[in-house]
Amino acid sequence: MPLDMWWFTGVACSLLTAAAVLLRAGKPGPGAAAAPPPQCVALLRGGRRAAVTVALVALQQRGVVTNGRKGTVRIDGWGTAVRDPLQLAVRTSLRRPAGIRVLLTVPRVQRALEALREECAAEGLLLPARRWRTARALLCAVPLTVATGLVVTPGSLPQTMASAVPVAGAVALWFVPRQTPAARRLLASLHEAHPLPDRPLRGSASVPRVQMSVALHGDRALELHLPHFARGGGLLGRRRDGGIAPPEPSSGGVSCGGP
Predict the structure, then answer these.
(1) Which pLDDT value is given to residue 238?
(2) Contact (CB, 8 A) for 215 and 50
(3) Which of 9, 134, 149, 242 could form a disulfide bond with 70, CB atoms 3.0-4.6 angstroms apart?
């Protein structure tokens, strides 16, 4: 049976269906109902940069880091033992002053961020990395399949119009966020429970509240609670940061990037 445009359109629809199934969120994990740590909240709200920002805030509150020159962060002291994996990765990456954009390129920080993403995925707050990447690959294959069909077997006008349907569906699914509905509900409830305060929070008792405030409200909370550190350290999203890439010892690990 010779190939025609309907065959390519059918394949594209099958790819689109498979991607849609992969993008469906599963049931939330047992810990999804409880408020996750501020770094997880920041990752859900603003991605990798937001999570590293909260890690730097936590380290600054413990007296481990401070702002450096030209929008960088530097070690200020070793403070108490750091056990959180992301905070430990950030601290050990600051062998020399560095900006947050440089920190995001350090392999050990990327690995810690990937582990944090997997924790969120285990609780049903993010789609697992393998499912997410597979779904995106299938969505990319949809227009390629249609384009191949149009080149190999030019179809009639009805066939061409029908082939646009899976392409439009792939474009729509491309903008489905990695966040699950459970994550969006959690962020909405946390915003209601932790509105941005009218005045800066001070004192040791407010340390976790400051971190959660930064995790939820980003730059506005940074300028409210830690203006000197945020501006000097280049943590504000609309400002450029600088710094020199810290030396990274050779490692057999795989760098894990991502949005």
Answers:
(1) 58
(2) yes
(3) 242
Strand partners, 66: 74
Identify the pLDDT of residue 239: 46
Q: Distance between CA atoms of 236 and 29, rounded to whole angstroms?
A: 33
Q: Could you give the residue ranges of the DSSP H alpha helices within 62-106?
A: 85-93, 100-103
Is the Cα dihedral 13, 16, 21, 22 positive or negative?
positive
Please give the biggest Cα pair distance in the chain.
77
Amino acid at position 97, single letter: P
How far is Cα 258 from Cα 246, in angstroms, rounded to an integer?
A: 20
CA atoms of 195 and 191, how far apart (whole Å)? 6
Instruction: Look at residue 31 in the predicted model and tell me its pLDDT.
Output: 52
Q: How many CB atoms lie within 10 A of CB 225?
A: 24
- Cα(67)–Cα(84) distance, integer angstroms: 21
Residues in CB range of 212: below 8 A, 6 or more apart: 35, 38, 41, 190, 194
Strand-pair partners of 179: 126
User: Which residues, 6 or more positions from 112, have their beta carbon under 8 angstroms from its beta carbon?
Assistant: 85, 86, 88, 89, 90
| pTM for the model | 0.79
Specify the amino acid at residue 31: G
Task: State which residues of the chain have pLDDT below 70.
Answer: 1-3, 26-34, 78-80, 204-205, 238-259
Distance CA 236, CA 241 (A): 9
